[in-house]
Specification:
binds adenosine monophosphate; 38% helix; 20% strand; 2 domains
Length: 290
């Protein structure tokens, strides 16, 4: 496992790999790797000659008062996790390497896709994501990049950006990895107290019920969302930010009757911790993946 610190070093490594005819898979992360990240790394290792994992807590995607400073970091652990899942390189730049003095260029996906769901309460978040991901694509010269459905809106925004800007890279969506009890894995789960962690299970339980209802033939999205809300509201510590449905991957607002591939997404706060989770469903008793 080789740690690469600067964009120039990574670019030199990638140029060499490509000149040798090797394919490159990129897994962008903010580190503190868990099984969800490892599933992306494994997929990349399967599909490419070389896998690069970026570990970068990107300041431009955090808003004021968010957890930029407290975001968990543990590079030693990340090295082992990335190596055990099959990565060859970790790219771990400092913020000043990615955004040196005088930095002034941002990538902004301006359609409604960034204004709904998490975009409502996190203005600027997807601009930061699109910017850093574009930089990572350019520096790594990757053939493929791997993103989790856990962050379904992020995945949709990246797919839109790659299509809009004719970026020469394949985006590979990967399913959500969950703890045994259903909680979607997230580096931010470490913030939860035992009591919050227990109550947070209502998110995945509610979504699982929704999935079951759809498989049983339910097509009334408003009813499905009402049931999800009722289930989560049963957890006294849960503060619901949104429970919404929209077409996937266009993210066009979409309620009423379930007739096409639909994302049911939610964001819920437990104390200071903001959790997101989702499912993608289709009518005709079929659950689908991104
Ligand atoms: P993060 O480090 O949280 O920015 O996540 C880096 C990548 O890992 C993103 O593409 C996430 O969607 C993905 N990811 C995070 N958690 C999970 C999970 N539980 N299952 C699948 N992918 C995940």
């Amino acid at each position: 496992m080789q740690i690469i610190k600067t964009p120039a070093e990574l670019n030199a490594v990638s140029k060499k790999l490509r000149s040798e005819g090797k394919t490159i898979g990129l897994v962008p992360t903010m580190g503190y790797l868990h099984e969800g990240h490892k599933s992306l790394i494994r997929k990349s290792a399967e599909q490419n000659d070389v896998t690069i994992v970026s570990v970068f807590v990107n300041p431009t995607q955090f808003g004021p008062g968010e957890d930029l400073e407290t975001y968990p970091r543990d590079l030693e652990r990340d090295k082992q996790a990335a190596a055990s899942a099959g990565a060859e390189y970790i790219f771990q730049p400092e913020p000043e390497d990615m955004y040196p003095d005088g930095y002034g260029t941002f990538v902004s996906v301006d359609s409604d896709i960034t204004k709904i769901l998490c975009g409502k309460t996190r203005p600027g978040h997807f601009r930061g994501v699109a910017t850093v991901v574009t930089k990572l694509f350019n520096i790594s010269m990757a053939d493929r990049a791997y993103f989790g459905q856990k962050d379904a809106q992020q995945l949709a925004v990246i797919m839109r950006m790659v299509s809009d800007l004719n970026m020469n890279i394949e985006i590979v969506p990967c399913p959500i990895v969950r703890e045994k009890d259903g909680l979607a894995m997230s580096s931010r789960n470490t913030y939860l107290s035992a009591e919050e962690r227990g109550q947070a299970l209502s998110l995945s339980a509610a979504l699982k019920d929704a999935e079951k209802a759809v498989k049983g033939g339910e097509t009334d999205l408003e009813k499905i969302k009402r049931n999800i809300r009722a289930r989560i509201s049963g957890s006294p510590l849960a503060d619901i930010e949104y429970i919404e449905s929209c077409a996937f991957p266009s993210l066009e607002p979409y309620g009423g009757k379930l007739v096409e591939k639909t994302l049911i997404a939610l964001a819920v706060r437990f104390g200071k911790t903001r959790l997101i989770d989702n499912i993608i469903v289709e009518p005709e008793n079929r659950e689908v993946r991104a």
